[in-house]
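INTERNAL AUDIT FORM
Audit reference: QA-55
Scope: verify that the stored structure record matches its stored sequence.
Auditor: D.O.
Record contents follow.
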Amino acid sequence: MNCEKLSNPSMDKKKKRKHMGNKPKEESTMEKKKNHKSKSIYDILSLELIHIVLMRVPIRHLARLKCVSKLWYSLISDPDFAELHFHHSPVATNACFFIENEAMVYFIYLDDNDASQKVMSPPFKKKPSHFAVLGSCRGFILSYRDPHFLVVWNLLTGFSKRISYSHIVARLKYYVVRLPYKFHLYGFGYDASQDDYLVVVAWQDKDDHYHLDYLSLRTNSWINLDAALSNLLGSYNWNPPGLFFNGTIHWVPSVLEAYRDVILIFDLKERTFSTLSAPEQPVKSACSYSILAVLGGCLGLYYRNYDSRKTEIWVMKEYKVHSTWTLYQIPCEVFQPVCFYSHGDIIGRGYTFSDKRGYFIHNVRGDLLKHFKNLCCPIRRAYAVYTESLLPLPSDIKDKDKKNKRKENCM
């Protein structure tokens, strides 16, 4: 006997009505999903608008956005975009960068309300026996590692370049291990007219003759410039590290005795030396070593006054106008200013009479506004004020162009 499956007509009708009733909803949902998928961010925002938005993103977050898409990666990696962002993005918080135990790098972010730190390893395969920070320029740190190498390093992109100066070492008058004592003067800066980064060194040979050499990172070559040497080179006991500011590298005598003492300037475009009068100074016994700094977009100079037990900070409000030197006094035995904020507050690292140590914010009257305690702060370690950037070195751009040409030729 053949058995047939019995069905309930009323139940079949209900199921049919239910099925028919849900169908339009399912189609509507599918259509919405389809329409949603078909629209991309580029349908909502134009490329020009995306470019404007990215220009306003703080530099430390911009590197992560390369992962959003190939287009964003290409846009953010473009050297022209990196240059525009460096000049027109919101001013990055100045950071203090220094070495601890000659093996690790501490990168300190500082602003009005907060501070944080990041620990990084130097870009070396093997741990060096000595490593020191020499200066910074446009997002690059210039450092020294033994035996005879300089290293240019962009902390944000991870790019690094090693530079040998062994050809100079063999002729030096004094053979010492650490670079700050090898060279009479040294500095790191940027020549905008040639889009080139220069490492400048002045040194003394075994016959007591002074020499001036600079390395062009665009051409990867050392160039002698003895013809441009200043007669002042042997007249003062100079503080060897140079400060890059306004297209020039500046050096100051270790101890200023009078306003007639000068700041030595090397113009990276003209490749010439000139001088600048220092502010009025107390007697030699009253002040410690003088150090240059860029503060609030101006040339600054500071030292410790032993008589008043304060740190005196001079700021030249208008470059090369002697009458605009302005004095600020901070009630700290040791205070190394990192930056001036636009509203006038001064942030720096050091310690006070009561043995408070760390990073401090003072107003222009010297009043303490804030103290950041829990950050690494070795006072006697080398440091540099550093501004992050995505900028490449010119030689790095040329290498990429060569690789791209090779790929095109192989296609």
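Auditor finding: record pair retrieved intact. The first helix runs from residue 9 to 38.
Action required: none
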